[in-house]
Amino acid sequence: MTTRKLLLIAAAVIAGAVSCSKSPLEKKVDEIVSKMSLEEKIGQMVQLNVTVVTDKEGKKISEQGEQIIRQYKIGSILNTPGDNGSTTAEHYRDLIAQLQDISLDEMGIPCIYGLDQIHGATYTTGATFFPQEVNIAATFDTKHAANMGKVLAYETRACNVPWVFSPVMDLGRNPVWPRVWESYGEDVCLTRAMAVAETVAIQGEDKDNIDEYHTAVSLKHYMAYGMPVSGQDRTPSMVSYRDLMERFFQPFKACVEAGALTIMVNSAINDGIPFHSNKELLTGWVKEGLNWDGFFVTDWADVKNIHSRDHVAASTKEAAMLAVNAGIDMIMDPYTPDVCTELLELVKEGKVSKERIDDAARRIIRAKLRMGLFDDPYGKKGSYEKFACEEHVAMAYQAAVEGEVLLKNEGAMLPLSKDAKILLVGPNANSMRTLNGGWSYSWQGDKAASEEMTGQYNTILEALQAKFKNVKYHSAVEYYGARWQDDRVTDLSAAVRDAASCDVIVACIGENTYCETPGNTPDILLSSNQRDMVKALAATGKPVVLILNEGRPRIIADIEPLAKAVVDIMLPSNYGADALAALLCGEENFSGRLPFTYPKYPNRYTPYDYYLSENVTTMAGAYNYDAKVDAQWNFGDGLSYTTFEYSDMTVDKTDFKAGDILTVSVNVKNTGERAGKESVLLFSSDIYASVAPSVRRLRDFKKVEIPAGESVKVEFSLPAENLAFAGHDLKWHLEPGEFRLAIGSESVNVNCVE
Ligand code: BGC
Predict the structure, then answer these.
(1) Which of 15, 174, 335, 413 has the most CB atoms at less than 10 Å from its CB?
(2) Which residue from 79, 457, 538 is spatially nearest to 300, judged by alpha carbons?
(3) By alpha-carbon position, which residue is closest to atom 7 of ligand 1?
(4) 177 and 233 Cβ atoms separated by less than 8 Å
(5) Nearest 5°: phi and psi at 567?
(6) Is 242 exposed, middle or buried (0-12, 13-18, 19+ CB in 10 A)?
(7) For 442, which DSSP code?
(8) Confidence bin at 623 (pLDDT 50/70/90)
(9) Which residues contact 684 (CB under 8 A, 6 or more apart)?
(10) How far apart are CA 529 and CA 552, in angstroms?
């Protein structure tokens, strides 16, 4: 046999082995993609807004819509049909069936429909709404993120929608950013744990076989979206690659490792480079670095933004080239399919390779197979009797109870007696809209005000009236008009008059609802009307309880001292007022903790894990430099009606090495008179490091329920590698030297010896 023949046989054997080793899923992907034309592959890469393909009511695919789908072979559609925000599960099912008829007939490939189901199936009428993510974070218990994910997926699949743009895993590290409430707060450890729990609950245990009760996730927004320098939505961040690696990348990495099928990209630029055209971060860090076979979807019109907004590409076509070559697989170009033509030209001109298009198409087809779309495009397999059932509602209520945070309770002002004469005031006291926030029935959350959507749920006024015998109400200040920012004084003088005959004033203050860019504000102070209202009422001498109902921490430094008690309920959604009433009367106990730092001044904000130089005492000498950290409340703050005492913290090793696992334990005693839940937080501090260390970092947390007078031992397994930091070489470093581990009042120093 000639050498050439031998080589050919060897090549055939290797090819056979390779193809034999392919999983059934990959073989199926091969089979489907091999039959697709270039146009079909490109069409799979494009996602249009549903309004482009339907009639005005969003009930029927329009003739023009059908023509667009057929001509451009469109692979994906997003959003709620019509212009009314949320709609029924039946409506989605009906519309998606029409889409599938066309897609299967034209391409033989089912369409993938994506929806922003953010704190439950929040674009589906009648679904179970959980508190927003920021409240879920405040529970410091991943069980609630898992419950939300499970219910959200189930109730979304009831609509035959297989894909949600959740969870949001941006670190909310700029308090004025209008999407803080969509995030799990400012910390990487908390966000990572919550996001992984939600991802796994949404997708189910087997990412290759997502069943009819689960959906695919789209982690978002990759990455550092929560840290715009200006605080305005979609404006630039300036995060170093080191910090990206150490903080912002971590939740995405963990969720990809937990099986996340898709990722949505951050709209903004970082240090001048659009995330959407950053090959190193998309292809390098995720696809290659994590060996990820899922797909990237852009955010809203963000390929075009590379050209029209950021001026990084001289044309929309060049923008498409940059994005696809960087690793973007699906383009959310909501209003026009013209990127299809541009991509086709780019391939013909050799500016985007056929291989890249094949790769993107394979990733999308793979995801469609994993979601079961080829087997069950019409969503006939499942039956959804548990939609908005009592069990789902109980989970949402419990998350609301544990996600409202008691920040101040002077002289045990709370709980209130059920006989207390309450004067209830404020623009948030009688509003379902403000309890819900954005992404609730409609993008801006305004539709949550409608009786049809939320009539069956309780506002704070209604919930207090159900628990307390004497509740008198004046709005005193109200939101009005089309802009969420606008409030005005109403019957404040009547409220002041009635204060004379009340025992306590409960003032519900905060924000009206907004979402994304419309939520930008130049001023993080709470509105002056609301602060003046509190001042006028406090001047009556009656004790004031502040209820903060807001999507981000609005500064209240001038009125906080006037209040005896403060509760931050953030955005607890439809069961949030019932939870609050039960907490205020003491039927339930508080256990929430702040997942972000609550600023006291507009220009002195630092997250909890600041650098030491941000908080130093005055230097001796003429040049008396100093710096102050002075927050209204700190990350992790939160009181209970009982008290807990920490003691006997131990670490099983005084000296440790890189591969070790440290067992850290502490005793927590409930020293009060009633049962309570306590979130036990484990922090670490690297005492000296070659890159300036943060003052402290959260490393783990556990929530425990402890009966009055009893103690529990809480134990953590802390891998030593979790104490490492990212260096400027973009590698992890665990340097020898001292570390302090701290839980509550306790701390132990340990030593890294290599
Ligand atoms: C938002 C995303 C959202 C997308 C689709 C964008 O404006 O930034 O979070 O998923 O729209 O609705």
Answers:
(1) 174
(2) 79
(3) 300
(4) yes
(5) -125, 125
(6) middle
(7) B
(8) confident
(9) 696, 697, 699, 718, 722, 723, 739, 740, 741, 742
(10) 18
SS3 readout for 297-343: ECCCCHHHHHHHCCCCCCCHHHHHHHHHHHCCCEEECCCCCHHHHHH
Work out the average pLDDT over 163-188: 98
pLDDT of residue 622: 87
Joined tokens for residue 746: 């306790």
Q: What is the DSSP letter of 348?
A: H
Angle, helix 188-203 to helix 142-157, in steps of 10 degrees: 30
Residue 3 has pLDDT above 80, yes or no: no
Average pLDDT over the chain, rounded to an integer: 96
pLDDT above 50 (res 1): no
Q: What is the average pLDDT across 366-381?
A: 98
**Three-class secondary structure of residue 590 per DSSP:** coil
CA distance 185 to 192: 11
Could you give the C-alpha distances from 412 to 407, 537, 597, in angstroms and in order? 12, 20, 24
Strand partners, 739: 686, 750
Q: What is the pLDDT of residue 20?
A: 61
Give the pLDDT mean for 102-117.
Answer: 98
Q: How far is the CA of 298 from the centre of ligand 1 (A)?
A: 9
Query: Of the residues 299, 487, 637, 700, which is catalytic?
Result: 299
CA 237/CA 228 separation, integer angstroms: 4
- Residue whose token pair is 């922090």: 683
> Which atom from ligand 1 is nearest to the alpha carbon of 443?
12
Lookup: tokens for 608: 């909890």
For residue 614, give the H/E element and its range: none
Q: Which residues have C-beta atoms less than 6 Å from ligand 1? A: 78-79, 116, 165, 220, 264, 299-300, 516
Kindly report the three-state secondary structure assignment for every residue of 126-153: CCCECCCHHHHHHCCCHHHHHHHHHHHH
The alpha carbon of 439 and the centre of ligand 1 are apart by a number of angstroms equal to 10
3-state DSSP call for residue 46?
A: strand
Active site residue 376: no
Q: Calculate the CA dihedral of residues 304, 309, 312, 316 and round it to 10 degrees.
A: 30
Q: How far is residue 724's CA from residue 735's CA, in Å, rounded to a whole number?
A: 8
Q: How far apart are CA 733 and CA 242, in angstroms?
A: 12
Which atom of ligand 1 is nearest the CA belonging to 332?
5
C-alpha pair distances (Å), 610 with each of 83, 228, 424: 44, 17, 38
- Residue 535 structure tokens: 């001042």
Gap from CA of 300 to ligand 1 centroid (Å): 6
Contact partners, residue 680, CB within 8 Å, separation at least 6: 666, 668, 701, 702, 703, 704, 714, 743, 744
pTM of the model: 0.96
Nearest-angstrom CA–CA distance, 132 and 113: 23
Which of 49, 79, 123, 165 to mutate for ligand 1's pocket (most ligand atoms within 8 Å of CB)? 165
Helix (H) or strand (E) holding 488: strand 487-489
